[in-house]
């Protein structure tokens, strides 16, 4: 009895708990049907081995790789700069060509416009000159006043057409120099004054110009210097028939012979 009580008082040996194995299936989901025995999956004890890098531990190799990358980047930048320069030069050339073609087209268009307008404007200016002469020729005839008023109305309409096309009427004043580009000499007037040579004596009919182009030349009378042999002698000048200093100027029949001694 006492031995049994002593055995019961002896402590039992303790054993470490066995590791719990992970189930191969999810225990959360409800299982229908007969219970399947749990099978443990052995863990993968193979550790990942880091790949070996031949550069590790070699600073020279690292520097060489960096230098190669820098060189490649520099070459790419140089190529990009060359392409950018070519593109910029192409754009500048293209812009220059476009501007030049635009100017040429504008000049051609203006030239065609002027070629078409020139004969029309000339005819209008010539008609104005005819109207001016008709008004002068009316005089004091019966009905001349009414005819002059009608001609003036037509003249105003034609002048308005010229003004709309930038044509201006010009008239010279006496004493201004003669310019063949804008004026046409109807007749010359002789003068012995050298200062009046090739100057306007009188304006007979106005002219018309458009910018730097003459539409209808002004008709003028111009002074012309006489040749020296036709000029009148000024007071004090010697005449070619003067008898001073010569006897040949006296006619033979008027010369008297001296009496003989």
UniProtKB/TrEMBL annotation:
Annotated region (Disordered), positions in chain: 1-58, 227-261
Gene Ontology BP annotations: protein folding
Biased amino acid composition, Acidic residues: 1-10
GO molecular-function term, one example from the UniProt record: protein-folding chaperone binding
Signal peptide positions (record): none
Protein name, UniProt field: Nucleotide exchange factor GrpE
Organism: Bifidobacterium asteroides
